[in-house]
Amino acid sequence: MEDYNISRGKHFYTIGLSYKKADAEVRGHFSLDETGKKNLLEQAKAEGIDGLIVTSTCNRTEIYGFAQHPFQLIKLLCEHTHGTVEEFEKVAYVYKNKDAISHMFRVGTGLDSQILGDFEIISQIKSAFIDSKDIGVSNPFLERLVNAVIQASKRIKNETGISSGATSVSFASVQYILKNFENPSELNILLFGTGKIGRNTCENLVKHTKNHQITLINRTKNKAEKVAGKFDLTVKDYADLQAEIRQADVLIVATGAQNPTITKDLIFNKKDLLILDLSIPKNVSTDVEELPGVSLIHLDHLSQMTDETLERRKAAIPQAHEIITEMEADFNSWLETRKFAPTIKALKKKLRTMKDAEVDFQRKKIENFNERQAEVLGDRIIQKIMNQFANHLKGDSNSTDESLELIQKVFQLEETAKR
């Protein structure tokens, strides 16, 4: 990427790990909360990195950014998580330049999601870019790339059937309840955590179970009250968590904490209890299964569920790939223009200098010289020349480097174009 005049970093990389090779425990080691992401971005800025975004979800943690070597980004990730370089190397992937660009398109359009067509990731990529821009580690390349991926995602949603029906981690949890309980509308359901996944789960619960005996608990009570108000549900204080668990048939945990929020000593159940853990890292201690009548299901199990909706979505994959190919080609076409932008800028400056010198010469030589008309005429000729060069460079990507070298040599732009 060093020829494209977009970053001090030599190459554009994607480094990360996902559900494909890393289980929930390992993904938890590399997960980043909002504070962790901010600290990572601040350190990247201090180290002189001028283009980087970071995403961390239940299914993957990834860094997209410019660097001289991918280890710069791997080191950043490991320094701000509980993961080690050795652990990362066992399950990770590293993509470079055009492959890194292609990867973001696949991820952002839901084709690489644990549940096919789960589009929540695109809003997370968008938020990640905003965070980077606020801290000062974004650049025009990243902005253009993120916007291109957002547009591809919108087109795939609107033009294909890949988003038909409801399939996401939050909906999969509701599906599990519907399949395993005869009367889901009569269950006592406790939802602990009202972040994004919690809110989506709550909406799916109300819509598909027709159950209004749902209790919400969140460490910050007013956040739970905002969600509850929308659906006319009950809110309890965080201090009531243990008592509410005792009354529950189903406990859904979506707290997004870095350590378990539900432990064995919180549960004194008098009846069977199903616990669905929708968090990465796991927010429910695995030893709760030692308790009689307690069943624990993690999101990795929920994500493996298949249904008719998912099968229908698979049929839309080829059409989605066509859209991605088109949008990615448009982006790469724009990227090629970045390669010759400094030369075009230098050429325009050189032509204007030549025009100004000629106008000045003719002003002294010709009586009643019309300087305004000369300026207009000169500028129009320059613009036509510039358009010819730009169109040639855009349309002849195979010999762009040779064309740039020739232009720089003919107009003696070598030093100017390098600045």
TrEMBL record:
Binding site for NADP(+): G193, T194, G195, K196, I197, G198
Active-site annotation: C58 (nucleophile)
Catalytic activity: (S)-4-amino-5-oxopentanoate + tRNA(Glu) + NADP(+) = L-glutamyl-tRNA(Glu) + NADPH + H(+)
UniProt pathway annotation: Porphyrin-containing compound metabolism; protoporphyrin-IX biosynthesis; 5-aminolevulinate from L-glutamyl-tRNA(Glu): step 1/2
UniProt EC number: 1.2.1.70
Binding residues for substrate: T57, C58, N59, R60, S113, D118, F119, E120, Q124
Residues flagged as site, Important for activity: H103
Location of the Quinate/shikimate 5-dehydrogenase/glutamyl-tRNA reductase domain: 179-304
Pfam families membership: GlutR_dimer, GlutR_N, Shikimate_DH
Tetrapyrrole biosynthesis glutamyl-tRNA reductase dimerisation domain span: 319-413
UniProt superkingdom: Bacteria
Keyword Isomerase attributed: no
Other known facts: During catalysis, the active site Cys acts as a nucleophile attacking the alpha-carbonyl group of tRNA-bound glutamate with the formation of a thioester intermediate between enzyme and glutamate, and the concomitant release of tRNA(Glu). The thioester intermediate is finally reduced by direct hydride transfer from NADPH, to form the product GSA.
NCBIfam families the UniProt entry points to: hemA (TIGR01035)
Domain-level remarks: Possesses an unusual extended V-shaped dimeric structure with each monomer consisting of three distinct domains arranged along a curved 'spinal' alpha-helix. The N-terminal catalytic domain specifically recognizes the glutamate moiety of the substrate. The second domain is the NADPH-binding domain, and the third C-terminal domain is responsible for dimerization.
Subunit comment: Homodimer.
Protein known as: Glutamyl-tRNA reductase
Source organism of this protein record: Salinimicrobium profundisediminis
Originating gene: hemA
